[in-house]
Design the sequence.
């Protein structure tokens, strides 16, 4: 029996539907010769310090730093039942396919489960950046040895271990230092959390202490034989009257420059015209779509992901989201433009609705823009409603 282990239930359901689901078991799907199961995010978590040494349960400055020689990972209480289901299925499996999301964390998420149960059989990797039937079919034809992705697993694991080392040691150190001076409570420190909070706090302080500072810009209309054009004055390196942001803030200096430069003839030493190519914006990831929906409409994350307008298109697999971090869709998606064009039409979105869906974006993103141009080219934009 070949066992597919997906990162999340929704991915397992899509794969099982493609493979021909025959029955549904507890936390798994039975297909023709295959079984599809899933994780629910990380099923294992890093052990607390006291799991390494019971004396570390008490916070003591002389016990720092805590650096495990071998990190321990324990089942999460909330998802322990699903972990047990996977363990039972692994005993029956003749081979396993890692179907984690196509990124570092997705690789680790499934690999750590296999390590937990000490699975020693054949493991392959199913790498999908889309979950429509065409993408799944292409992915199944191109299964790779799972060990090819060991570097991605190790990178994710190193990040997690760095989080643990910084969080456990610095949280204890700062808390104990604060308590020694009469402070109360815990001082949590995180590798990502603390620098991020520092940026937010610095920005809030800057805004709270902001004072309006008037400054001057000098613009001139320059007459030439062919007409006239606009120019903007740029200060020299040692220009007087400038502030630390290189803005002209001294009115006396500004007035003196205006008097000095008005009506003066000059020579144009060089004129250069450049053609600038604007790169195609990358496709939406789950994060970038959520951020855009929040900015454009004020949606919260859960709301943005369940908008009916998106579901009407998404249910027909007309639109997709990049699942990796490279910002590109899989080639199978581009090779499937014609089917997606018809799926967009079947979704019955008017051109206005489609534009509103992307409100706030500087342009329709990646193949979304290309797909809409295909719809327009086919004339279906007149019959979408």
Sequence:
């Amino acid at each position: 029996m070949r066992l597919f282990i997906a990162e999340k239930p929704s991915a397992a359901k899509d794969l099982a539907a493609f493979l021909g689901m025959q029955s549904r078991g507890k936390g798994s799907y039975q297909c023709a010769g295959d079984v599809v199961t899933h994780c629910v995010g990380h099923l294992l978590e890093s052990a607390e310090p006291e799991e390494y040494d019971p004396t570390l349960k008490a916070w003591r400055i002389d016990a720092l730093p805590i650096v495990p020689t071998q990190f321990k990972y324990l089942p999460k209480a909330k998802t322990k039942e699903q972990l047990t289901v996977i363990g039972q299925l692994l005993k029956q499996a003749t081979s396993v396919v890692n179907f984690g999301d196509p990124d570092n964390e997705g690789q680790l998420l499934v690999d750590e489960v296999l390590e937990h149960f000490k699975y020693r059989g054949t493991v392959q990797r199913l790498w999908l950046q889309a979950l429509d039937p065409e993408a799944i079919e292409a992915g199944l034809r191109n299964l790779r040895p799972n060990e090819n992705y060991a570097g991605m697993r190790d990178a994710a694991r190193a990040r997690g271990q760095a989080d643990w080392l910084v969080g456990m040691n610095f949280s204890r150190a700062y808390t104990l230092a604060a308590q020694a001076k009469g402070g109360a409570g815990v001082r949590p420190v995180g590798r990502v959390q603390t620098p991020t909070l520092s940026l937010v706090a610095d920005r809030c302080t800057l805004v709270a202490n902001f004072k309006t500072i008037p400054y001057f810009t000098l613009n001139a209309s320059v007459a030439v034989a062919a007409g006239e054009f606009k120019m903007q004055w740029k200060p020299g390196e040692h220009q007087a009257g400038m502030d630390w942001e290189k803005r002209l803030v001294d009115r006396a200096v500004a007035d003196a420059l205006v008097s000095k430069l008005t009506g003066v003839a000059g020579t144009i030493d060089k004129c250069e015209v450049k053609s600038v190519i604007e790169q195609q914006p990358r496709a939406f990831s789950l994060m970038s779509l959520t951020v855009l929906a929040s900015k454009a409409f004020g949606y919260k994350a859960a709301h943005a992901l369940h908008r009916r307008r998106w579901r009407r298109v998404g249910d027909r697999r007309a639109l997709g989201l990049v699942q990796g971090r490279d910002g590109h869709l899989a080639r199978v998606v581009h090779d499937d433009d014609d089917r997606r064009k018809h799926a967009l039409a079947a979704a019955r979105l008017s051109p206005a609705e489609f534009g509103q869906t992307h409100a706030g974006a500087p342009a329709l993103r990646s193949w979304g823009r290309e797909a809409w141009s295909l719809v327009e080219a086919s004339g279906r934009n007149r019959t979408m409603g």
About this structure: The longest strand covers residues 219-224. The radius of gyration is 29 Å. Residues 308-316, 357-385 have pLDDT under 50 and may be disordered. The chain has three domains: 2-155, 219-261, 286-382.
